[in-house]
Amino acid sequence: GDLEPFRAHRPVVERALAYFEAHTGKDGLVHYDPRYWLFLDWTKLPLEGASSVYNLWLVLALERLAAMHRLTRDTTEARRCELWARRLRKRLRALLNSSGLLRDGIDPKGKVRSSTSPHAQTLSLMAGLAPESAAVMERFLLDYLQDESGHTAKPSAYWITYVYSTLAQLGHGAKVVAHLRPRWEPMIAQGSTFEL
User: Fold this and answer.
1) Per DSSP, what are the bridge partners of residue 96?
2) Are 131 and 137 in contact (CB under 8 A)?
């Protein structure tokens, strides 16, 4: 493909990366900036402090950015992004609980949160953050599909696509359809979709 759009937007990318670097705390994670609205999902995910979900999105972006830099033969910038992503991965792995689930981050006072959202487990699986915990995270998500009641942060109709895609890739397509059908099939009669 044509790499010129990537080259043309390098200054924009650099400004975005500078923002994330400026908001990286002493713990090595990017922290919430109260000046701006942080959208992670239309649900009750913790925002203040350092969110695991926020930082996992950054890991995924940095790794894809590194690949783009390699395509443009800019190994210096590729290496910078790879090292940053590696440091974030290490910090995030430290947030795994004793069961192997990723906790939702660090609160503004520096205390590790005890909550473990479907969002954090999904992005952990997408990023391959903790292969030794993948089975536990997968089971967590399958259990979530069976019974959502125990969760404060329930993926919205928008965000659940990441849960569905991840589980389908892991061979759980039938369970995804079983969760999806009673929620979405009634919308057919409306000819449109609506939030659940």
Assistant:
1) 102
2) no
Pair 158, 41: CB distance under 8 Å: yes
Those residues whose C-beta lies under 8 Å from the C-beta of residue 100, and which sit 6 or more positions away, are: 130, 132, 133, 136, 137
- Given a contact cutoff of 8 angstroms between Cβ atoms, the answer to whether 44 and 153 are in contact is yes
pLDDT of residue 195: 65
In 30-173 the beta strands, taken as DSSP E runs, fall at 50-51, 105-106
Residue 24 β-bridge partners: 30
Residues in the chain: 196
Dihedral sign (CA 37, 42, 48, 50) = negative
Interatomic CA distance for residues 161 and 173, integer angstroms:
12
For residue 38, the Cα-to-chain-centroid distance in whole angstroms is 13
Quick: pLDDT tens for 18-72. 999 999 999 999 999 999 999 999 998 999 999 999 999 999 999 999 999 999 9
Q: How far apart are CA 90 and CA 9, in angstroms?
A: 29
CA distances from 110 to 26, 107, 133, 184 (A): 10, 5, 24, 40
Distance CA 37, CA 54 (A): 12
> In Å, how far are 51, 69, 81, 156, 187 from 117, measured between CA atoms?
11, 33, 27, 12, 27
